[in-house]
């Protein structure tokens, strides 16, 4: 176990309470001083529930949420009715140099600078931004990958030790920033992903076959490099949002605001045929979105389910607190023949991190899940999520489960029941931190949230708030 020097987080709202990092790496088994299981863990579960998130390792000189913080993966492994836990930093090239020198060597997205000579001499990447590998953790083509917004994937072993950068056998070239949000097609097992560059062409759609071999590379003509965080498979198409939100690296390096929001402009929507055909563009009054929930195609229509926001929830100022803004589950319909766009709010509940049964990714489905809040007021910079919501996407009916006031519930992941193809026979897992109970994994019935957790796996250390989680079927220690 590594013990690190204390970090003064008092200046940074997004490093307070359960946003604060954990500065140790733990390994726990069940039993005295380790994991405690309450309730019944479904026997059919064999695999690992992993979540990535930002977790600074050294004193930062600036901190912007959600763009900074070294990636740390938390994992609970399920096998033979027993559970095990680990948390490990992703040991990126930048992280390794900082560990060697015992200090931060790279700046924040809100305070960008080139690394100093000592950092470069120690082998630090000569880049103004450090690949944080902090956003997502995905298992595809027999590789476990920690992913960042715009950088190479980092391959991990199942025990969370870092193997190194993975460039898909050279398919990803220097300067191609791989997205943190690939989608794995429920029909073909293909991984649909993209790269974004600072120089044109800004956006390239990529498709990897089941084994991780690239089978499509399709640059899309775009006027500028917008903040395009996620993508969604919808049948034979891939849909992306092109909001009037841009980044300016030069401004960021000279003390200016690296974020640009042209809120008077429309948001454009791009539907790209998966066979490499030419994209079809749509337009809608301005909105912003981090995440899709799912999407599918029915004839000439694409159905796109996502979490809507009026404006981007980030800024240069660490006190900006813009995460408090409204966000709701929406369904957008794109008519490929007529160009018509319709959009409908499914409900008023504040929610984020929309998910569905991944076996139906890109295909018609019924249930969408999201971290959610029914709190009417909140303290701190972020609204927080004290519960989870399930929407019946066909009619907007919803179920909400409240973990309790002051709880931070993470992205809810649908874990299929291996013995059933039905969405509602699956389980819903999330990392949760409760103000009195501490951190635990919640395992619920995807078919009935109202039953509450079927089991909780309590973790004796804290699991800070983070980003994306996934179930790794069959992956164990
Ligand atoms: Fe994300």
TrEMBL record:
Designated name of the protein: Uncharacterized protein
Any Pfam family the entry gives: RPE65
Keywords: Iron, Metal-binding, Oxidoreductase
Cofactor list: Fe(2+)
Keyword match Acetylation: no
Cofactor note: Binds 1 Fe(2+) ion per subunit.
Binding site for Fe cation: 181, 229, 291, 468
Alphabetical GO biological process terms: carotene catabolic process
Species whose genome carries this gene: Oceanicoccus sagamiensis
Family named by the database record: Belongs to the carotenoid oxygenase family.
Upper taxonomic lineage: Bacteria, Pseudomonadati, Pseudomonadota, Gammaproteobacteria, Cellvibrionales
Recorded superkingdom: Bacteria
């Amino acid at each position: 176990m590594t013990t690190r020097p204390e970090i003064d987080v008092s200046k940074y709202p997004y490093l307070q309470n359960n946003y604060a990092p954990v500065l140790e790496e733990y390994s726990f088994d069940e039993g005295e001083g380790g994991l405690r299981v309450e309730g019944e863990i479904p026997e059919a579960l064999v695999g690992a529930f992993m979540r990535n998130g930002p977790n600074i390792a050294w004193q930062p000189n600036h901190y912007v949420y959600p763009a900074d913080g070294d990636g740390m993966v938390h994992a609970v492994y399920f096998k033979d009715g027993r559970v095990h836990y680990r948390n490990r930093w992703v040991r990126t090239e930048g992280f390794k140099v900082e560990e060697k020198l015992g200090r931060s060597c790279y700046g924040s997205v809100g305070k960008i600078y080139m690394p100093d000579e000592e950092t470069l001499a120690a082998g630090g990447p000569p880049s103004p931004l450090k690949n944080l590998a902090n956003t997502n953790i995905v298992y595809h083509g027999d590789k476990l990958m920690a992913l960042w917004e715009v950088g190479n994937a980092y391959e991990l072993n199942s025990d969370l030790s870092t193997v190194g950068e993975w460039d898909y056998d050279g398919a990803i070239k220097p300067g191609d920033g791989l997205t943190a949000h690939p989608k794995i097609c429920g029909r073909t097992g293909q991984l649909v992903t993209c790269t974004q560059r600072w120089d044109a062409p800004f956006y390239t759609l990529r498709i990897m076959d089941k084994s991780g071999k690239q089978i499509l590379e399709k640059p899309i003509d775009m006027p500028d490099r917008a903040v395009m965080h996620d993508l969604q498979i919808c049948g034979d198409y891939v849909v992306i949002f092109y909001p009037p939100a841009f980044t300016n690296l030069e401004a960021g390096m000279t003390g200016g605001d690296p974020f640009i929001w042209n809120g008077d402009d429309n948001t454009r929507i791009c539907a790209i045929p998966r066979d490499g055909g030419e994209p079809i563009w749509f337009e809608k009054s301005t909105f912003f979105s981090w995440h899709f929930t799912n999407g599918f195609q029915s004839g000439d229509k694409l159905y796109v389910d996502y979490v809507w926001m009026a404006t981007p929830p980030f800024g240069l100022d660490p006190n900006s607190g813009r995460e408090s803004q409204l966000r709701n589950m929406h369904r957008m319909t794109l008519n490929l023949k007529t160009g018509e766009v319709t959009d409908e709010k499914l409900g008023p509940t504040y929610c984020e991190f929309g998910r569905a049964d991944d076996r139906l990714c890109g295909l018609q489905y019924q249930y969408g899940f999201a971290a959610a809040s029914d709190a009417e007021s909140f303290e701190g910079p972020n609204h927080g999520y004290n519960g989870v919501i399930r929407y019946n996407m066909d009619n907007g009916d919803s179920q909400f489960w409240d973990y309790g006031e002051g709880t931070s519930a993470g992205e809810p992941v649908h874990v299929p029941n291996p013995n059933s193809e039905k969405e509602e026979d699956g389980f819903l897992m999330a990392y949760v931190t409760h103000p009195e109970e501490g951190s635990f994994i919640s395992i619920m019935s995807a078919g009935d949230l109202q039953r509450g957790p079927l089991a909780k796996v309590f973790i004796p250390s804290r699991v800070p708030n983070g980003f994306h989680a996934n179930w790794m079927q069959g992956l164990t220690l």
